[in-house]
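Re: folding output
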Amino acid sequence: MKRILLTSVDYGLAFGVDRALRGLVAEGRLSAVGCLVVSDLWSREYLPLRDCVDAAPHRTRVGVTLALTRPHAPLSVKGRSRFGEALPGRGWWRLRDALRLVPRDVLVDEVEAQLTCFEEYYQRPPDFLHVADELLALPRVAHVVLRTASLRRHRPLIVTPRLRADGGVEARFARRFRRFAERYTLRVLPRGPAFPDVAGAEAQQTHLRRGLAGVEDLAVVTCRPGTVDDRLRRLEPLARQDVREAQLAFLSGEAFPLLLVETDTFLF
């Protein structure tokens, strides 16, 4: 038997996404939800999520998806002073990390602001911390994020960044990252292969049957289900919208629980 944490990490992106995730939580078809507290929807959508999680007959972990890139706006005072109304792109962080020019004070302030925003609304500490765009793979960014998380009263579990589909290279990276996190007395959640960004039920079924072979126990397997609404149409290309609806249809359909039994997979 393999236990996985089936997780969607973009709660707060759009109403259609949020409704879909709450429906899957209520049906016991998601293990965890990561919240985008930088979204302007968070202040309205946190309470329906908390009510749904509390009413579910099973445990659902709820955490923070730390967003450090556009199109999101910074929450912190220092972030707004440095970046204005939109955070920089992924390339900006990668270049600054390589040149040892990561703005540490700004990053600390932004991490603190997003974690505090979650706790102030949700009234509970986050179960885990996931960093969007795999920026936690950047060593200097990771140092700042992990140190900031380690100083909080309630330390979240840290979701390991996923770099490549090459198992050997990725396994070595995951071990190094775990040792790195242990320096800050933080526990990590390993990553498994995400559900494919391919529309259609066959690709999703194949991934559950074959794509999760050999994953670590309690690996985080991400998905991106959602119902397309006007806001999502403005944010994402049509192909990504099709993937969301395909994954939602698969996860909420009759075949999904049968495949879990067939593959001896347990949503933990």
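--- second protein (sequence, then structure) ---
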Amino acid sequence: MEAVTTLPRTGMTRDDLAALVPEEPDDGHRYELIDGTLIVTPAPGFRHQVASVQLTVLLHQACPSELAVLTAPFAVGLGVDTEVQPDLLVASRDAFTDKDLPGAPLLAVEILSPSTRLIDLNLKKARYEEAGCASYWVVDPLELRLLAWELRDGTYVQVADVGEDEAWSAVLPFPVTITPSTLA
């Protein structure tokens, strides 16, 4: 199923999103707001979820105690007109509120689905970069591939493009080694 993008009105805000969508919708969709545009996507598929769980475990095991690894759905406010729910995120424990992360995480991870591929590789990447997210990773669970960018002087620089059996050792937000085939 393709992502459904609607524009209820120009300049939708996070407050509008909160009024429109219940805190925990039970319809199986993910509701995000990017630059005032509402993006509604279907629930992720099997391979997506397996990769998410495997990567969550790997990150959690390597994560220092002052940081937290969370999975979607969890709101990340990147501006008054932008609220995203990365598949995984890492941030300082003291940066969270009970409800959301009101600013860029240290790491945002998106796991590609057919319905979100273009959004994750373009819109979200640009928005995380603009918000100052230090690291952005994209995992393709079908190709077993990981792409990673790090923020340098306000611009993302690609630091990894690893295939199925290649290992990559991340430095940010903490040291961890990932081999895409272990995420299947």
